Amino acid sequence: MCAIRVRPKPLSGPAADEAGPPPRGRRSPAGAPARPRAALRPARNWAGLLYVVPAFTVFAFFVLYPLGQAFWLSLWDWDGVTQATWVGAGNYVDAVGDPEIVGALRNSLVFVVFYAALPTAIGLGLTALMARVRIYGLTFFRAALFVPQILPGVVVAVTWRSMYAIDGPVNGVLRLIGLDGVTRAWLGEFATALPSVGLIGTWVMYGLCMVLFMAGAQRIPAELYEAARIDGAGAVREFFTVTLPGLRREISFALVLTITYALRNFDIVWNTTSGGPGTSTTVPSVFIYRAAFTTRDYGEAAAISVLLTVLILAVTGLVLFLLRSKDDAKGARR
């Protein structure tokens, strides 16, 4: 005999009303209704955002609001006294089409090499050297190499201006070793003014890079160095396989700081050459200063300021994107 399975008929009438509507949602394998997907999500605690409000208020008042005011001012032609005239994007068109401003941007990119690339390379070299060679009085050397970073820019500029003078220490050392033909007015010639000012920035910024890299090298596990040495890695291979990958975040942070300083550089340039000779060391910040306080064209000064801000954000964003770690890239994809 075969068993006949009878499917129960759906309830109707008063019995259906007493049974109520069928349960909603998916059913588990046991037949019980599954919980709605929305109920499985953790509740968001919006109260945590209250801790961000004080810092965001200060940031908005001292950064976002002035930036918005600068953008609004860049749309006008105003000398600070007479009635302003609406020009729209005219100030931006004039700034982009001005060959002197374009040349100033090129000078800023050259300063990126001296203010960012060279200090980063020197800082990495000093970090690798101090990590392998035992140096007595290491704390003193760290403090001495970091001193240029804490000096005011005006003091640094005035000191190096006297060093670059015709009768200054730089030419004095060259004469002492028999290189009289190399001596010159380093800040007064078109060919040497820009790299001379750039070397000042290298001297100022390499201490910051070194301190950042040495702090990052201390968190690299010692087992990685021991494994590399067991495998027969020399100093160069150990640096490129262990130290350099371990300092990825410190390198990106150092490049952001140094590139930002290079692109907005003003105090060292103004107090050494004032943008001269000619426009060989002129940077956008010098144009901003002259437009605001010499020709009193506040709209043009604001427009150049906004363009410089956009350039800094674009360059630093590109650096952070190229040097992001694998963990950061995976988190971004999620």
Automatic annotation (TrEMBL):
Cellular location(s): Cell membrane
Chain intervals for the UniProt region annotation (Disordered): 1-36
TM helices/strands, residue ranges: 46-68, 109-131, 143-166, 186-213, 301-323
SUPFAM superfamilies documented for this protein: MetI-like
UniProt KW keywords: Cell membrane, Membrane, Transmembrane, Transmembrane helix, Transport
Pfam families per UniProt: BPD_transp_1
Every ABC transmembrane type-1 domain range: 105-319
Primary localization: membrane
Membrane topology term: Multi-pass membrane protein
Key word Transport present: yes
Keyword Transmembrane helix: yes
Family: Belongs to the binding-protein-dependent transport system permease family.
Protein name as catalogued: Carbohydrate ABC transporter permease
Species lineage: Bacteria, Bacillati, Actinomycetota, Actinomycetes, Streptosporangiales
